[in-house]
Structure formats: C-alpha cells, structure tokens
What we know:
The structure is a single chain. The protein is an alpha/beta fold. It has helices at 16-23, 74-85, 113-128, 148-162, 196-202; strands spanning 35-38, 48-51, 56-61, 90-95, 134-137, 166-170, 191-193. A seven-stranded mixed sheet has the order 1-2-4-3-5-6-7, with helices on both faces. Strand 3, helix 2 and strand 4 form a beta-alpha-beta unit. The radius of gyration is 16 Å and the shape is globular.
Amino acid sequence: xxxxxxxxxxxxxxxxxxxxxxxxxxxxxxxxxxxxxxxxxxxxxxxxxxxxxxxxxxxxxxxxxxxxxxxxxxxxxxxxxxxxxxxxxxxxxxxxxxxxxxxxxxxxxxxxxxxxxxxxxxxxxxxxxxxxxxxxxxxxxxxxxxxxxxxxxxxxxxxxxxxxxxxxxxxxxxxxxxxxxxxxxxxxxxxxxxxxxxxxxxx
Length: 203
C-alpha cells in the first residue's frame, strides 16, 4: 500500500531531466541496463518505470502504485506480458498523473502544475525513444476520479501529435468508452486502435 504523505506541492520535486540523468547512472539496487526508473528511488511520485529496448510499448495508467524495478505488481506484470505478446521488445509504464497512491481516492484534489509539467517532459521523452511511438490507453474508469485528469490527458494528446503517436487499447471498453485496465485481460490479448480524440470529446 502507498498512502501519499501529503500534497505534492509540499515536496521538493526532482525535475525530470535530473531524474533521467540519475536513472541512467549505475544503481546498486537494480540493473540500470535493463530498467528505466525515474526517479531512481521510491518516493511519493514516479515519472517512468519500465524496461529498456528499441521498440517499447508505452502503457498509460492514471497514477503510479508501488511497483519498482524487479518488483512488479500484477498490473505491471500484465503490461509486460501483453507488450511482449504484441511484438514489442520492452514496455514503459507512464501515468496521466505522477503522484503515487495505491487507492486513487487518495490522490490530491488539485493538480500540482509543477508535477504535471515535469510529467509531460517525461512523456515527451518516452515518445522520443521510438520512431513511431505506440501508446496503450489503459486507465479504465479511474479517469473519473479527479476533474483535472482530463486536462492532463488533453495535454498528452497534443504532445502525442508532435511525435506521430498511434493510440491503442486492449480488451473491451466500458459503457462510457473508457479503455480497459491491464488487469484481467487474456494473456494473449491483442492490441487494437483507439480513437483518443473521439473519446476525449465525450469524456
């Protein structure tokens, strides 16, 4: 379980550029040639967690939970399995909002502009890794938990356009059109196109 220690505005946030630089340095706790983890230690927020490769599947959830390199939760295990099963050589877990909270109800009530800005810098980075980035929408109905999450997602859509991003989903969407969460998908589930612009117009 991870319960936020308080609003992220009270934290001294590490800028993404600095977090990435540290993530690329050797770390006694995990193999940095295999894992990309920023920040590279456990704290109240996380920009990126995933494996390194030339063709990553970028999975988008709502907010980070407790997973760390070599200690994936069931959601991340499913993400890795589906990424490899769909022809990708790695996965990168990203989130609409970077605050850690096992229970999304514990997320802060207001968006921290600084945290969001740094998270969008991280998003630009994960998109830049591939010549044709593929993003898996996988946040489920949790997007409804906070009003600011739609605005964060709209920013991601615009950034995605700059990089020629293709959006996809896996499994059945909900009655409201939300893309399926990675849990409880078939292990051989295939990705399919997801119309992110139409989805956001109805959200």
